[in-house]
Amino acid sequence: MYNLPAVDSSFEEVVLYILAWIVLIICLGCIYAFFRAIILFVFSNWKNEKIQAAWSSIRYMILWMFFTILFLFAAPGLLKFMDVRGAEQYTAKNVFTYMWKILSKASLLWNFFKESQEANQYDGKLYYDM
C-alpha cells in the first residue's frame, strides 16, 4: 500500500482528489476507446466506414492521452501561476497516489458486495457489515 504524501490542510487534499478524478475519468475513457476500436476492427467486415470509425477512436484515445500528460505536468505550474495555496503539492506523483486511493476505495466497495453475497447465499437475508 502506498503512503500518502504529507499534505498540510484539507484544501490541498480536495484539489488533489479533483485532479485525480479528472485523470481517472480520462484514463477510463481512453481504455473504452481502445476496446471500442478493437471491436470495430474485428467486426468491420472490411467496410470502410467501420474501419474509419475505429481509426477515429484510436485518434481520440491518443489525443486524450496527450491531454492527460499535458494536464498532469501543466496543472502544478498553472495553479502556482494562479497563486493557489500549496501549489507545489500538485505533482503528477501525488495525483497518481490519490488516484490509487480512489481505486482502492472502489475495491473495498467491491469486497463489501462480495461478502454480502456470500453471507446471504443460503438464508436470503440482507447482510450489511457496517
What this model shows, in words?
It contains three helices and no strands. It is mainly alpha-helical and 130 residues long. The protein has one domain (10-119). Helix 1 (10-42) runs antiparallel to helix 2 and helix 1 (10-42) packs across helix 3 (92-119). The radius of gyration is 20 Å and the shape is flat. The two termini are 23 Å apart. The relative contact order is 0.15. The model has no long low-confidence stretch (mean pLDDT 81).
Mean pLDDT: 81
Give the H and E element order: HHH
| Helix residue percentage | over 70%
The Cα radius of gyration reads 20 Å
| Tally of separate helices | 3
Structural class: mainly alpha
Give the biggest sheet.
none
- Shape, principal axes of CA atoms: flat
Q: Please count the beta strands (DSSP E, at least 2 residues each).
A: 0
Stretches where pLDDT is under 50 for at least 5 consecutive residues are none
What oligomeric assembly is this protein in? single chain
Number of structurally distinct domains: 1
Calculate the terminal CA-CA distance, rounded to whole Å. Answer: 23 Å
Strand content: under 5%
Which key phrases capture this entry?
single chain; mainly alpha
